[in-house]
Amino acid sequence: MDTNMPLPGSFYRYPDGSTLQIICIANNCIDKEKNIVYQKMFPPFDIWTEPLSTFIKETGNNGVQIYKSWETGNMPPGINIPANNMDIPASTIPESDVITDSMFREALLNGAIDRKIAGKIPDREIAEKGFMELLDARTYHEKYIIFTSLRKYLDKRLLNNIAVALDIVLEDGDEEEQYDSVLHCLQTFEHYETQRLR
């Protein structure tokens, strides 16, 4: 058996911190070429295909670390399993490495991301999940708390996405200026929200 052949259930982590899980090896019905089917292990948990030869070449050249299948109990730290993946028994995932959505949200709202979450999942995933939590927050007060908790994880792209979602126009400037602009708007929104509810 080829030792470079990815096995279903194996995890690969790229240097940027993103992780994927191999679902299966599939045959292309047109050219009979083998394709790899994998799922990204961060929201929105997209499923992708890629020619197997390309995947092996890329992973060999980029220093990707391979993790054994979940069946061995060697789940890499920080892997979030999508709720719809019922094939993975919960008993094989070490409790200390699992970050549930409720744990993540609680850490965001308590300003405890650095203490409870950082290091268990990649920073990029913290930013993306935090962005989704900010969008789902019910009040501007919650949005403000989440936004301040995410300060060190936000880049210009995410700041722009947050501004668009909140219907804020960002002026040109560096990340710090744009962060402050969104923060000021959230403070204003929060102030008028609490005044309205009185």
In short:
With 198 residues, this protein is of the alpha+beta class.
Which characteristics define this entry?
198 residues, alpha+beta, five-stranded antiparallel sheet, 14% strand
List the SSEs and their pairings.
Elements: E1 11-13, E2 19-27, E3 34-40, E4 47-51, H1 52-61, E5 65-67, H2 101-109, H3 113-117, H4 123-136, H5 140-149, H6 156-165, H7 175-197
Antiparallel strand pairs: 1-2, 1-5, 2-3, 3-4
Helix pairs in contact: 4-5, 5-7, 6-7
Which secondary-structure class do the elements indicate? alpha+beta
Radius of gyration: 20 Å
What ranges have pLDDT less than 50 throughout 5 or more consecutive residues?
61-76, 79-96
Q: Could you give the distance between the termini?
A: 69 Å
- Average predicted local confidence, pLDDT: 76
H/E element order: EEEEHEHHHHHH
Shape descriptor: elongated
How many strands, which pairing sense, and closed or not: the largest β-sheet?
5 strands, antiparallel
- Strands of the biggest beta sheet: in what spatial order? 4-3-2-1-5
Helix content: 40-55%
Task: Give the helix tally.
Answer: 7
Strand content: 5-15%
According to DSSP, the number of beta strands is 5
Would you kindly provide a written description of the structure presented here, covering whatever features stand out?
With 198 residues, the protein is an alpha+beta fold. It has 7 helices and 5 strands, in the order ββββαβαααααα. It has helices spanning 52-61, 101-109, 113-117, 123-136, 140-149, 156-165, 175-197, and strands at 11-13, 19-27, 34-40, 47-51, 65-67. The protein has a 5-stranded antiparallel beta sheet with strand order 4-3-2-1-5, with helices on one face. β2 (19-27) and β3 (34-40) form a beta hairpin. α5 (140-149) packs antiparallel against α7 and α6 (156-165) packs parallel to α7 (175-197).
